[in-house]
Write a structure and sequence with these properties.
alpha+beta, 5 helices, binds flavin mononucleotide
Length: 169
């Protein structure tokens, strides 16, 4: 898929149909996430791949906007190892970049995906850390629901020329 087509046609997919995601595809998607830029090249990310229906249901129990997990094949929790970080606080930005790479790679692979916000909601982070047995210093950042898209979501028009400022505001 051409890069600009991938960027513009990626949508949050919340309706999935039945199907399997091959392990090799998952590895490719996770590899793409690990190629995201990161401050000082710290690459603090780790990824927890969740396929257990029970765990996905538990997430729906505490996350108010996670209904699409019912039909998703799996979810990926993007978490950061904040132990001994060289550039404190940048893990949030690094993990956001990795999450965006996940979404784009899923789309390029013909899959549908949706970012589920965890950070900065402390209660959601606490629940997810408990559910996934995250050790101390491993901070939850986001969840990505992944599945086989039920249909293509059309591309909206989003170019807003009035938001482009030249030289000064
Ligand atoms: C930080 C962040 C948190 C989000 N959390 C949720 C969420 O909890 N549930 C959900 O259905 N979508 C969530 N989204 C997806 C947005 O709703 C979506 O990106 C936005 O509506 C634009 O649509 P698009 O992704 O199709 O371009 C989140 C997106 C971001 C960037």
């Amino acid at each position: 898929m051409e890069a600009f087509e991938c960027l513009l046609d990626r949508r949050s997919v919340r309706k999935f149909r039945e199907g399997e995601i091959p392990d090799e595809t998952m590895v490719e998607i996770l590899k793409a996430a690990m190629y995201a830029p990161s401050a000082g090249n710290q690459r603090p990310w780790h990824f927890v791949v969740i396929r257990s229906r029970k765990t996905l249901e538990r997430i729906m129990g505490f996350h108010p906007h996670a209904g699409m997990l019912k039909d998703a094949c799996l979810a990926i929790a993007v978490v950061a190892d904040t132990n001994g970080e060289k550039y404190p606080g940048y893990w949030v930005l690094d993990c956001a970049a990795a999450t965006q790479n996940l979404l784009l790679a899923a789309h390029a692979s013909g899959l549908g995906a949706c970012w589920l916000g965890i950070y900065p909601k402390e209660e959601r982070a606490k629940e997810l850390a408990l559910l996934l047995d995250l050790p101390s210093g491993i901070a939850p950042h986001s969840l990505v629901a992944v599945g086989i898209p039920a249909s293509a979501v059309p591309r909206p028009e989003r170019l807003e020329p009035e938001r482009i400022h030249n030289e000064r505001w």
